[in-house]
Write the structure tokens for this entry.
Amino acid sequence: MAEMRKTAEEARVATKGPCVTSLLRRAGLRPTRQRIALAALLYNRGHRHVSAEALFEEAVLAKVPVSLATIYNTLHQFTEAGLLRELAVDGAKSYFDTNVSDHHHFFVEGENAMMDIPADAVAIDLLPTPPEGMEIVRVDVLVRVRRKRQ
């Protein structure tokens, strides 16, 4: 877990090609041109939550030649390598969080926006015993909010 936090912190400060390249290598990923370009897009603005479609739009604007399928594959590879955290909303929509530290989220309905909640702002007193041979890896809390109606 400490290694994953270190990788996340390195990801946070990675803004240029060489930094992104070493970040990918340390995560066990080959630094291809597309991975480098997508990692730069993901991490050059600090912690954020992004969907595959939004990253694809950013890539198009940045003139990065990449397909939506490649975006999905890359986001899942980054998640498996510990560089991102996937957040599923309603089972059909996923967001990818560049902050992989322990924390929770607000989901703003109607805006499709995610906001961080510090881990210590949520108290979870009782968890069920996991099934035989299993262990709890992480607990994700998603609090749905909406703007107050005037």
About this structure: The radius of gyration is 17 Å. Helices lie at 2-13, 17-26, 33-43, 52-61, 68-80.
